[in-house]
Structures are given as structure tokens and as C-alpha cells.
Please model this.
Amino acid sequence: MPAPTELAARLAEIAARGRLRRRWARDGGQGAHIWLEGREYLSFASNDYLGLANHSELVAEVQIAAGRHGVGAGAAHLLSGHHALHQALEAELAAFVGLPAALLFTCGYMANLGVVTALLGHHDAIFADRLNHASLTDAAILSRAQHHRYPHLDLAALERMLADSRARVKLIATDAVFSMDGDLAPLPELLALAERYGAWLYVDDAHGFGVLGAEGRGSLEHHRLTLHPSPLPPHPALIYMATLGKAAGVSGAFVAGSPELIDWLTQRARTHIYTTASPPMLAAAVRRSLRLIRAGEQRRAQLRGLIERLRRGAEGLPWRLRPSDTPIQPLIVGEDAAAVQLSEALRTRGLWVPAIRPPTVPEGTARLRISLSAAHREADIDRLLEALHAIATECR
Ligand SMILES: *Cc1c(COP(=O)(O)O)cnc(C)c1O
Model:
């Protein structure tokens, strides 16, 4: 069969299993209400947890910075693309999360690929939670290290794997907040294991940064791993990564850790070296975003209130919310088709809540990933709950 025909056949197969995905073109900014292909929806589908993606202060910052510094960085960091705004942002990010140094990447996917491949080769081993983000899985494959995946949050299994490993360099990799479940990794226990077995601990905080911790400094603040009692770097094996396109509302990512680690990554992280630096105007926006995050206690309190309201109101539904205290609230439906139907039924009511199906989540756990934002109001949660209860009654 010629290759293009083969692709068409495979696409038809995916469609027959009800797993074809499509994109909907959005018009206008991200927010609680969005316009998709000519229709307005109340949306529970973004990672813009603090409602900053469309914030007027960030927009103004980008406009000013574009006027002064232009649009594109024009080169990679090691050539002429590294801008004073990048440099200042790296220092601010490191201080913000309480680690000695930081390095920018254009996105979280690239950060994960870059760090893992810079630290591990084929004599080495990575130990990864089964529910880690796809980019960490790809990073492991690209590094050619042995890839050990342990059952979700199963520290005993992880410890057995660490004890059995003869690898030269070991790295434990985990999402700090799991992206499709919203639950937290036990970072203090993982760090203790890393230290006991001489391994690195790589923490992907894409969904914790800005959201967790009293000042939104993320999972390390939440678990009191840095900044308590003083901003000291007590854990040289700790590598922290967070993205800047979710709660921070902009784009990009950074890795933070010891000065030696950051120096090494500057020399060896291929996804930092062989790519154009992100536009300096975005660094300006992130710097402003950091201030809004730090002063964002009201936004985080709003978010906590909404989470509680949703969880209380979801009791009595035929579908269960997985335990989660974060803005990621997975409503488990089970079968793919049923999850898609529920999402469709909400859509006809003007509610945008995407169904997440395998392979993004394990078989038989298709779900609605309800994602809350400080931009939502209580009435928005109530509207979602009313729709879910109404659909549940119709199904009976
Ligand atoms: C979104 C996400 C990434 C990728 O970050 P981008 O900046 O969007 O490329 C990495 N890890 C996790 C856990 C994520 O949720």
C-alpha cells in the first residue's frame, strides 16, 4: 500500500474506534468564556489557572517591550539571542522558587527533553511515575537510558527498582501535580529516596507553579522543600522545572537547581542550545506575571473556593471526581464513547469541557478534565453542576 493510502486507512481506523481528535479554532483571548468557531462557551478547558493569559498588565508589558526590543529574539541564546530580559528573568525565577540558579527553555516539552538527555546516556537509568507527562516519557526514550516506570505513586516499587539498579547515573522523574488527575507527588519522600540511592530528583511542576504555596511559588513551597527556614539550597540532587504557559499565563519554561547543574545545562542541553531564544517581550511579560502571582493570594483563595464548591456539588452524580485539591478535577466516566457523549451534551448547553481518552489516560478511565480558573465565578461552577445533574437525570 502506498504510504499516503496507509495513513488514510490508519486514520479511518482511529475514527472507527471513536478516537479521532479535532481542533476547534478559538477567536479572542483565553478565559472563563471563550469563542470557538462562532459560538461562545463557558470553558473549563484551559491551564490558565490564575486567569492571567489575557491580563491587561501582561498585554501592556508585551506592547512596551515589543516597541523597545522588537518581536523576535533572532538567534539562539549562545549566539546573540540571549537578552538582558532573559537574564533578569532567570535570576528572578531562581529566587522565586528558592533555588540558586535557573535556565530558560522555550517550553516545558523542550525543557524535559533537554535536561534528561543532558544528564543521562545509555549506561544510566530513569525511574518514572507511570502517569508522568508524555514529554518525560519521550525524554527518557531520547536519552537512551533504561526506562523504569513505577506504578503511580508507588514508592515501595520505586525503591525496589532503585535498589536493583546498577546504573551509573540515576534520575527519578515525576510530575509534581499530575496533569490528568490533579493529585500530588510526595516530593519529600521522593527526595529522601533520591538522596538514599544517590539519584537526581527531577520535578515537573507544570501545574503547581503559580497555584500551590502561599505565594504561588509552586510545589517546593507547598512541600516546604525550599525557602524554609531560609533560602538555602539543601538538596543539590533536586532539579525543578516549571512551565510559564499555564498559571503564569505566557509561554516558555525554566529549570532551576544548583549552579553546577545550570552551567552543565547551558553547555549540554541541546533543546536550549540549538533553538532560537523565545521573544524577549515574553520574558518581560513573565516578569510582570511573577509579581501578579506573588500578590495573587486572592486569586488562589478564589480558586480554592471554586474547587470546594465543585466537589461538594458533584456529590450524587453518577460519575466520580477523582480525589484532587488542585484546579484539575477529573470526572471519571469510564468508556470512551460515554465520555465523548457527556462532553457533547455539555457542549450543546454552551459548556466546553473536553473528554480525555486513551492513550492520554489509561484504558477504561476516559474522563472529563474539568479545569478551574480564578477567572471563573461561583455562578459558573453552579451552571456546570446544574448541567451535569440534568444530563445525569436524562440518562437514567
Ligand atoms: C504542559 C506540560 C508540559 C509541557 O509544557 P509546555 O510548556 O506546554 O511545552 C510538561 N509537563 C507537564 C506535566 C505538563 O502538563
